[in-house]
Write a structure and sequence with these properties.
The protein is an alpha+beta fold. Helix content is 14%, strand content 29%. It has 1 helix and 7 strands; from the N terminus they run αβββββββ. A hairpin with a 2-residue loop joins strand 3 and strand 4. It is elongated, with a radius of gyration of 19 Å. About 8% of the residues have low confidence.
């Protein structure tokens, strides 16, 4: 569910985040309807074509921005978290699990994934941390006071 852009809370950057979120959700929908490499009803999976974006939540707290991605069964060694040029990038590879027996249904995503989001100007990119617990990757981007609105005294 998308949330309306609230005036006075980020302005243009909030609108860009909203568009970025909409783009990610549309990408997920398109890949669900038109999977790369096969038809899910026949159990062929998604293949290893174009990178896809895992489901994610971005939470704006009082002191940080939290990005939570669903990555069940993925080892931390297979995930890369990078911050560059005001953008957070999370990518990696989900390997297809070997099965004994006949796979009747295959609807879990495999292959390369790539999640990107633009960070707000007050993000402290030097103190970003990441934690993988119970299949959820939580990336914490602290806020900084730099760029915070303040009143300017007029002299003269």
């Amino acid at each position: 569910m998308t949330h309306p852009v609230r005036p006075g809370r980020g302005g243009l950057s909030a609108a860009l985040r909203e568009l970025d979120d909409l783009h990610s959700r549309m990408d997920q929908l398109m890949h669900a309807v038109f999977p790369v490499g096969g038809y899910p009803e026949f159990g062929t999976g998604t293949g290893t074509g174009e990178p896809w974006a895992p489901p994610a939540d971005v939470v704006d707290t009082e002191d940080a921005y939290l990005v939570e991605l669903e990555l069940p069964g993925v080892a931390k060694e297979d995930i890369s978290v990078e911050v560059a040029d005001g953008e957070l990038g999370i990518h990696g590879d989900i390997k297809e699990k070997e099965h004994t027996g006949v796979v009747r249904t295959h609807s879990r995503r495999t292959g390369r994934f790539d999640y990107r989001t633009t960070l707000p100007p007050n993000a402290d990119t030097e103190r970003v941390s990441a934690d993988l617990t119970n299949g959820v990757l939580t990336v914490r981007v602290p806020r900084t006071d730099t760029g915070k609105a303040h009143r300017v005294e007029i002299t003269g």
